[in-house]
Specification:
Keywords: Metal-binding. It comes from Labedaea rhizosphaerae. This is Copper chaperone CopZ. It holds the Pfam family HMA. With 67 residues, this protein is of the alpha+beta class. It has a single domain, classed as Alpha-Beta Plaits (2-Layer Sandwich), CATH 3.30.70.100. The protein has a four-stranded antiparallel β-sheet, with helices on one face. Helix 1 packs across helix 2. It is globular and about 30 Å long. The chain binds dioxo(di-mu-sulfide)dimolybdenum. Dioxo(di-mu-sulfide)dimolybdenum (9UX) binds next to helix 1.
């Protein structure tokens, strides 16, 4: 399945990489796609992710999940 989240604070490709790396560590995540200008982060996973886990990973990377 695929879910798109909004993340604030990313301004460059390195930001996107940090978020991607953290999210990829979550169990079941198979792909992460980041659009820096809009903050849209699309996560593909084998099962539905807990939003708290996604938020924690984004925070760990240094950014914030919206909503
Ligand atoms: Mo650089 Mo993207 O500080 O932050 S990683 S703008």
């Amino acid at each position: 399945m695929q879910t798109t989240y909004t993340v604030t604070g990313m301004t460059c490709a390195h930001c996107a990489r940090s978020v991607t790396e953290e999210l990829t560590e979550l169990e079941g995540v198979t792909d992460v796609s980041v659009d820096v200008p809009t903050g849209a982060v699309t996560v593909s996973s084998t099962a539905e992710l807990a939003k708290d886990d996604v938020a924690a990973a984004v925070t760990e990377a240094g950014y914030q999940l919206v909503g």
